[in-house]
Every structure is written in C-alpha cells, then in structure tokens.
Amino acid sequence: MSTLQPPMAALDAALEEKRIELADLIDRHTREDGTCATGVDALFMSRYSQSSDFSPSLPQPALCILAQGRKEVRLADEYFAYDPLNYLVVSVSMPISGRVVEISPQHPVLALRLDIDPMDITTLISEAGPIGVPSRPAGRGVYVEPIDQVMLDALLRLTRLLDTPRDIAMLAPLIRREILYRLLRSPLGYRLYEIATENSQTHRVSRAISWLNGHFQQPLRIDDLAREANLSVSTLHHRFKAMTAMSPLQYQKQLRLNEARRLMLSEGLDASAAGYRVGYESPSQFSREYSRQFGAPPVRDLARLRMGL
C-alpha cells in the first residue's frame, strides 16, 4: 500500500483570498449534503458535513477542486490526498473510491468538479498546435498537482457566472477552454495530452479501459482486449498497469464487485443474484472475492453500510 500525498503548506495571501471567495460561492449555491449540477455545463458542486468510509465510483475524466476541507481517493492500493492547495485530476474513467476527512457541520467540505470531455482536449490540441506539452512515459490516470493563482482565478471566474446567468452561454465555454489549456500546460499535463492524442499507446490503453467499463460482465479474454486496443498483449499489460495500478483482470474484478455492491444496496438484490448479474457464475467465488475487497462477506458488509458504521 502506498500513499501519494502532497506536502501541506499555507496558502499565500492572494490564493487565500480567492479560496475564501470560492468557498463562499459554493456555500451559497449548495443547501444540503451531496453533489448537485449547476447552471454551467459540466460544473458540479458538493457539500459534505459528515465523514464517511471510502465509497466506490466510476467517474468520468474530471478536475476536482476543494475550496474547504480535505479528501482522499483510493486507486487499487494507492492513496491520493488533495485539499485547497492541491487539485486532483482523473484523466480516464476508472474504479476509484473516495472519502472526505477533516470535516464538521461548522466547516463542511466544499468542492467543485469540472467534468472533462477528452474530445475537447483533442480539439484544443488540434486548434492550438504545439503548446509545449512534453512527451513522457505514461503515469497513473489519477494525479494531484499544486494549484496556482492562474488556475484558481479561472475556476473562480467560471463559478462566478452562477451569479450572472445571462453571461453563462457566452463566457463559460471560453473559460472552460482556458482551464483545459492550463491543465495541459501544467507539469503533469502530458497525462491528459497522451490520452487525447490519437494512436498514442496511452490513448489505445484508454480505449481498452472504456471497453472494459462497458463490458465487465463478459468473460475477459486478454487477446481480444489487446486487439481492441491495437496493442500487443505484453504492451497492454505494462501500459494498463502503469495507468490504473491494476492488471486488466484485477480491473475487471474491481468493476464487478463495486457494481454488485451497488446493486445490493440500491436495488435490494441478494448476493447470489448480484454476483450473477455482474458476471460471476460461482456464488462462493463471488463471496470470497467480495470479502477480500470489502473486508466482510456481502451480508455483513451491507448491514454495516446500512447502519452507517
């Protein structure tokens, strides 16, 4: 298990002023705990006033900002922590788990999420031409970077539009484009660049990930997945693990178990039905792998979740 956590430091005065304004905007536009859409396309706000255990999700690519509080994201056995000093980027849709920490009703976690359409990155690259993004070996599809004044200023200008709705249609697309440009020019922006660059190996792995996300119930044949990605089997394994911290088989297992847990919680399916729905033929195998993943058999795990423990 490894923890990838940025060093803590104090915000400088200019950043702190912008952070306070952003926190105030989120506070005014959120009335209760949870995540809500806003009047700006692809921009979401969240408020959390109670801590919780890690909750699995399959987010689409996104930029995640905290104006107040702290959050941890888990990918396989790696942990990524972010806060008002550091933003988190999910560059490819993958099964991750997240939880909020350092929280109280008086000081809730206040967050923004800006979803990223990879096609917008591709269009920006093609229209802007060379923008000085270095080519480097592929890294994780989740990463944390320090925020700076230009990025926070752009996010603040985008969020301010919620107070002047008549300006959203004209200005929001321009500011979103600026934010994507800033992301690409950041030290780790090459991870977005590679995914959006047609026929790069990273782009091909992202195709394999997308295929698995949509077909995880089906038996996994590595040769077929390699053909889908137009990569050799060995290259697919190497690049896939570099991006997701998992092998394709481990990745499929995460998807299956997370979806089975969701089905039991939200649709009331029993363990056997949920396991069968996500592709398990053996109830005993499903129970064993579920216990390893969540620390308890399905019935006990669900009872714990419903009691909020």
UniProtKB/TrEMBL annotation:
SMART domains: HTH_ARAC. Pfam families: AraC_N (PF06719), HTH_18 (PF12833). Keywords: Transcription, Transcription regulation. Residues 206-304 form the HTH araC/xylS-type domain. Coiled coil: none annotated. InterPro entries: Homeodomain-like_sf, HTH_AraC, Tscrpt_reg_HTH_AraC_N. PANTHER family: ARAC-FAMILY TRANSCRIPTIONAL REGULATOR, TRANSCRIPTIONAL REGULATORY PROTEIN. This is AraC family transcriptional regulator. It comes from Pseudomonas lundensis.
